[in-house]
User: Fold these one by one.
Assistant:
Number 1:
Amino acid sequence: MAGIAWTMSVTPVLAAADASRTALDDLGLGRPARRRGPALPRSRLKSRRASPSDRRWTIAFLVSLFAIHMARIQGDGTLLGLASPAISLLGDMSLAVIFTFAIVVPIVLSVRTSTRWLEHLVWKWYSPRAMRH
């Protein structure tokens, strides 16, 4: 979970205008990295602006999940009564990470790699047309 949080905090958030350049660079169809110079500080700035919002949403979700566990367990409000919902919350978070890495990531990666050739062909066809307009 700490690794995911770190990745969320340092990953640049790209605007819609950056999407075509990023896709072309990922496919190896774009120009060399020299044109990424001015866009890098702008994307880092956007990432820094978006990070607190991402953290707030994550914390709000975890607090809501903790409140749901509190309501279901109906603890007595003591420290020991709060331990059970907290352990349930940690279990939910662990299961979410395991589910993500064991099921979601392999499916997404297999779909992306198996359709990469099709994406490459579409971008080769589309990029000259987009440059003309």
Number 2:
Amino acid sequence: MTTSDWKIEVRNKDRQRVGELDDYQQLDMSLKFNDVSTWQLKISRRSRLAADLLADGAGILVYRNDIVQLSGFWTDQDHERSLQSNTVTVSGVDDTAWLNRRLAYPDPNDITPPYSVAQDARTGQASEVIRQFVDENGGLATAVARRIPGLFAGTDQTGGAGPTITGTGKWQKLLPLCQDLATRSEAAGTPLGFRIVQSGTDLLFELYEPEDKTGTVVFSIERGNLGGFKYTRTAPTMTYAIVGGDGEGTARTFSEKSNGALAATWGRIEDDLADSRNGNTASELAQAADQALAEGSGTTSLSVTPIDLPSQRYGFEYVLGDKVTVLLDSIGPFVETVVADAVGQGTSITADYLIALEAMSPLFPDGTRVLLKNAVGDLKDPGVRIVVGRTIAFGYVNLEFYPAASASTEEGDHLQAIEPPNPVGDPISDLIREVAISLTPGSEQVTPAVGNTNTKINPARVFRVLRSYGRRIVNLERR
């Protein structure tokens, strides 16, 4: 993929398209699963669309192959003028931010005090409950004074997905409420995704089920589609959940549940009492226990640097929210074993990342790890390279590498394939929860993050920790 596949358009406050911004200097985006995505765009203050972009309420639409990847509005402007530069950096959020601009009313039809209803409890399939809260607190089913202009949330695009859950609206923002319900659905085995994106000049609240592509989208060094990774893990903080429902004292309803697999390794770990006062049925307490165990099971944070191959490209074979697999290479000493060898046939003059080989090039399929050595046997080009493709030039089959090779071959030089390392442990399979994208007119960089990389994905955990801190402070004051 190249930057020619991307397009940036400027829109005005009424979400009408003003024109394509083709003279930008850099665009950075952080696309987030079930959260507000952010963007930062640097342009010249003399750009023909600068005034339109910087107008109050204006924003951008970003396309890849004519599919909208992000739509949103600016929140900050940073102007810089000197003898050498005259630029403005515009920062903004995507349209999902509207969910942070509306509250879940206890009675969406009662929008003036005094209020006679304490909470809005809704029970149904997770996707439909999420849709109802948005539609009645911002969509067309909302009182006119509270409607988000142009927002349509009247259709559950999943057709009804997720477990039966109960959600309660009582003055919290819509975003954390939707996140909480989606997290509970995922904990029960059905991930749900949502976002707000521009369609025409309107806004569409999209609900979708992320696809499980763990068997078809696999990142690994050996496959030639993984340039690098950053990986962190945290130990579990809970393997045994205790949930408190309605009632007080000995009359309160309780439910307990264990994560047997984790407990077998880490032992019984009890964390703070999970508060579920809004529900006391067995199913509601069981869902709260599943959610607490999921949040306390430890996290994995894996940021990968992918290599786009014809068979596996971001935006085509996988997108934000899909569940994919990553194979990490082995931990500990690794002895390089040469499994194939080819002798160079003279200096390659086509490009510095092509190595001219004999006809035995099929010994080096895509994903092969290789070393380039001088005829005398010492290392010629530092570092291991990965074969990612091939082409024909000057009568030879030439290999393409990642990272690009910095030295051409001379007659007698050797290209040696080394045995791939074994993957460590079980494959990591999780949702793509964030994608960082950086574009300049001549380059692009796409970096997906797999796993729980952001505590906002589990807001209930944050709230529970805050409540715990509050109780400890109260206890200290009592002492």
